[in-house]
Give the backbone structure.
Amino acid sequence: MKITIQKLTGEELESMGVFKWPIWSCEISEFPWSYPVQETCYLLEGQVEVTTDLETVTFGAGDFVVFPAGLSCTWKVLQAVKKHYSMG
């Protein structure tokens, strides 16, 4: 299970309705997390390092990220995060 990170244009984000998705925010912290369903998100602010059994990825403001269903990982929030997200 791999985490996918992309750079999308504003037009692509608009066409997907990303800016209408709910917003989640988090201060600097570290915590375990698992995804029972796929999560798709777009980071407005911050920087995060996520570690799984297979990889460690870093992403931040302007990144479009997809976490597959069934993924377990550890989130390390390096800079306070604000993101739009969609589950399922």
The first strand starts at residue 4 and ends at 6. DSSP finds one helix and seven strands in the chain. The CA atoms of residues 25 and 82 lie 4 Å apart.
